[in-house]
Structures are given as structure tokens and as C-alpha cells.
Amino acid sequence: MLESEICKQITTPLTAPAFPKGLYKFHNREYLNVIYRTDLEALRKIIPEPLELDGEEPLVRFEMMAMPDTTGLGSYTECGQVIPVKYNGVKGDYLHMMYLDNHPAIAVGRELSAYPKKLGTPKLFVDSDTLVGTLNYGSLSVATATMGYKHEELDSKEAYDQISRPNFMLKIVPGYDGNPRICEIICTQHKDITIHGSWTGPARLQLFSHALAPLADLPVLEVISASHILTDLTLAPAHVVYDYLANN
């Protein structure tokens, strides 16, 4: 293969790429979001500068996403923790950790962007009258979220606002000497969003301690609200907003 051809590739293995080129479009993407209050000091310890906590309340969003129809990536489920932050006056969400069950989605998220993705086994399903989200890491339970199924309609604008905020992520790529080769805060924002339906209802969230999936390090002190959203959207490309290596 010619050098000019090699330079056009975006991932390896060379003749069997881990993921195809985007755009990555999601059809009937389903969210279960539980917003909860956590320990302020625990939250401050994990938000990377120069991002700042947005507001006085120490809030976290536990999100579970079922994605049955994703261009180029197939069908998978994902969950994680999201923290409201601000950067240079822009309000958005810091993606703290994410667990999913699809290798192409893990690879593209980490390589082409900076989504903090690891392998896990999340599930989103309806159990009688309850919407349920669970996460296992290996064979152990890490999280269980429950919400009353479609108890009350949620305003579509509020649903849109929840999933359209800028996403901030920390990207670290080591060099061959063991030191960071890339160390950046990057930002992306979902676009082409269509809300098919949105609901709210009573919710609860349990997080279980695990050394390698430490969601419980941000403990649940009080559930504030919950939402169930069905949508189509397109994943937007990421861009650098802060380069640690250039500023230190």
C-alpha cells in the first residue's frame, strides 16, 4: 500500500478498520437520565481544570442510552456519569466515565474523539411498569436505575436542552516515552436532534463500589429528577478548546 493511501486511513488494522468513517447517525436512541445530588468535595476532585463546576449544587447525571440503529456501528447500549460544568462562560457537560458493549463504538469514541469509554454490560429495558437501567462490570453489578414508565410527559424543549448541551472531554494519548503526547480538553455537541417523545416520573438510583468502575465515588445523596427521551441525532465532530501541553 502506498504512503499516500496509508495517510488516508483513520484507524487500524490496516485492511480491517476498527470502525468506518462517519457521520454517525442514531435512530431511535433512547435515554434514561437520572440527575442526582452528590458530595461536593468528591465532585471537585475529579473535574479537570480549567473546567469549573456549573452552579452551587453538586449535581451528576447518570445516563443510560440504548442505541439500536447506529450508522456504521450497529446496535449497542451505553451508560455513564455526566457533570454540569462551564468553560470560559460556556455551560456544558463533562463526560466523566462511560461503559458500553460494542467494540467499534469504544474504538471510535476513544480514537477519533475523546469519549472516556470502557467495556461494560449496560442494559435498558422495561420491567412491567418500570423503566430499568443496569450496568455490570464483568460479572458484578455496578449500577441500577429505575423510573416509573411514562408517568408524565416532559416538555420537548426541556428534553432537547438536556441532550444538546456541549460535551467536554479529557483526551490523553501517551507517547512512546510514557509521557503524554496529547493532553487536551475537547468539545463536541450533538446536532440534527429530533425528539420523538419525552417523559418524566419518580426515579431511584443505586451505585455499587467497584475498584475499576468507580461510579460510587460520586455517591447518590438525593435524586433530583429523571427523564426518558426517545430521539434521532447525529454525532458532531470534536474540536480542541484547551491544550495542556501548550499551556504548561
TrEMBL record:
<dbReference type="Pfam" id="PF06314">
    <property type="entry name" value="ADC"/>
</dbReference>
<dbReference type="InterPro" id="IPR023653">
    <property type="entry name" value="Acetoacetate_decarboxylase_bac"/>
</dbReference>
<comment type="function">
    <text>Catalyzes the conversion of acetoacetate to acetone and carbon dioxide.</text>
</comment>
<dbReference type="GO" id="GO:0047602">
    <property type="term" value="F:acetoacetate decarboxylase activity"/>
</dbReference>
<keyword id="KW-0210">Decarboxylase</keyword>
<comment type="similarity">
    <text>Belongs to the ADC family.</text>
</comment>
<keyword id="KW-0456">Lyase</keyword>
<dbReference type="InterPro" id="IPR010451">
    <property type="entry name" value="Acetoacetate_decarboxylase"/>
</dbReference>
<keyword id="KW-0704">Schiff base</keyword>
<feature type="active site" description="Schiff-base intermediate with acetoacetate">
    <location>
        <position position="117"/>
    </location>
</feature>
<protein>
    <recommendedName>
        <fullName>Acetoacetate decarboxylase</fullName>
        <ecNumber>4.1.1.4</ecNumber>
    </recommendedName>
</protein>
<dbReference type="InterPro" id="IPR023375">
    <property type="entry name" value="ADC_dom_sf"/>
</dbReference>
